[in-house]
Amino acid sequence: MNYDIKDKTILVTGANRGIGKAIVESFIEHGAIKVYAAVRQLNSVSSLVEQYSDRIVPIQVDLGDPQSIFAAAQAAPDVQIVINNAGVFQAGTPLAKNAIASVEFQMNINVYGLIYMAQAFAPVLKANGGGVFVQINSVASLKSFSDSATYCASKAAAYSITQALRELLSQQNTLVLSVHPGPIATDMGDAAGMSEVAQTPAFVADGIVKALKAGDFHVFPDPIAQQMGDAYKSFAQNVVEVSSS
């Protein structure tokens, strides 16, 4: 199932910078009629409003606050594409003294936030004909890196949830994408120490656009991600993407 962005209404969490901002800009360039820029602080998207005028609608969403997520779903009943991009990164090994607290912090945003987004917006997408739900995961959801294992654990859990959403939301004609970037030039990428090999956020935005046209589930948008995606391809096609029904 492929999907055309033109004339669609989008909601992007974490729209004020990095990957989220690149997605907003790309989708408008590809013909999206309106984008709900979902952020914690509404004034953080003032530059997008100045650039695109009334095509940008700031809306308050904090993935750590379920009430804000469900309120946003009520305030944006016309959404056809939801892109859950917002997330947190905190480096930590399993042997660190704060390992449990680190996992809990990241699970709260990266996993529980995803679940609340799906619960809140799945009915909205269904009412609008099905649409699309996109989750920004990471190559870290496929391989753990010891220095950031607590983050990797949260992204692996998010990927697992995304697989379940693919199957569940297909029943309401909603296309689900799982996006797995490698190092991207964002604040999070800098915090992870990946600046020297990072690619621009535009790789992720363009990868989503291409995947929507192709009807793909897995998206490996940048060169490093593509290498991992090539290695993972057989398992993805023969295990993950096979319907269990």
TrEMBL record:
<dbReference type="InterPro" id="IPR036291">
    <property type="entry name" value="NAD(P)-bd_dom_sf"/>
</dbReference>
<dbReference type="Pfam" id="PF00106">
    <property type="entry name" value="adh_short"/>
</dbReference>
<dbReference type="InterPro" id="IPR002347">
    <property type="entry name" value="SDR_fam"/>
</dbReference>
<dbReference type="InterPro" id="IPR020904">
    <property type="entry name" value="Sc_DH/Rdtase_CS"/>
</dbReference>
<protein>
    <submittedName>
        <fullName>SDR family oxidoreductase</fullName>
    </submittedName>
</protein>
<keyword id="KW-0560">Oxidoreductase</keyword>
<comment type="similarity">
    <text>Belongs to the short-chain dehydrogenases/reductases (SDR) family.</text>
</comment>
